[in-house]
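Q: Given only this backbone (193 positions), what sequence would you predict?
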């Protein structure tokens, strides 16, 4: 999710200052209780300025989420992706990793936008599948685009399933659940051999 042009024209220092202040609010309050007024107060800007930068609190959240995802992606060792499900905390500081984990509690409409509004997200999944193919783990005729789409939509649906079937979000439980989906079920299927 890209901010509006007015935000992109700010100095890098000012953008980072606003982002850090917004993260403070997202990390300290339940998402549904966050209001534009709270964000404006924390960021030290008025509503006209906020709406020159972003369309909504969702857009601001998605922009920050995208920045942190790209930061983690730039540090990801894709040679390890096909042997273990990596934790985002392996690549980000604790605070930024906590921000990305908000995906487990934000409204489903925001989760949907995280997965499907950003075309670069599919490219990330293609990189992971291509790494598996390059490592010789996939059949020669495996369609990287199709498998990337299946992985991305599968993880999206698994996340929704987890959210609907669990009352709380334990990091180890979530990690094990996604590890089962990604490393066992998708690789080996669910049919008896």
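A: Predicted residues:
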């Amino acid at each position: 999710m890209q901010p509006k042009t007015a935000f992109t024209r700010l100095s890098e220092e000012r953008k980072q200052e606003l982002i850090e202040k917004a993260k403070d609010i997202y990390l300290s309050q339940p998402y549904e209780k966050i209001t534009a007024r709270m964000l404006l107060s924390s960021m030290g800007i008025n509503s006209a300025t906020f709406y020159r930068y972003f369309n909504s609190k969702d857009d601001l959240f998605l922009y920050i989420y995208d920045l942190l995802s790209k930061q983690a992606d730039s540090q990801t060792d894709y040679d390890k992706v096909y042997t273990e499900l990596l934790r985002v905390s392996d690549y980000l500081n604790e605070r930024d990793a906590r921000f990305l984990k908000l995906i487990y509690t934000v409204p489903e409409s925001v989760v949907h936008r995280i997965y499907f509004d950003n075309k670069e997200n599919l490219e990330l999944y293609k990189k992971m599948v291509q790494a598996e193919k390059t490592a010789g783990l996939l059949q020669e005729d495996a369609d990287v685009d199709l498998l990337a789409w299946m992985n991305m939509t599968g993880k999206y649906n698994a996340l929704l399933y987890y959210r609907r079937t669990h009352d709380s979000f334990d990091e180890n439980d979530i990690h094990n659940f996604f590890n089962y989906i990604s490393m066992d079920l998708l690789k080996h299927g669910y049919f008896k051999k």
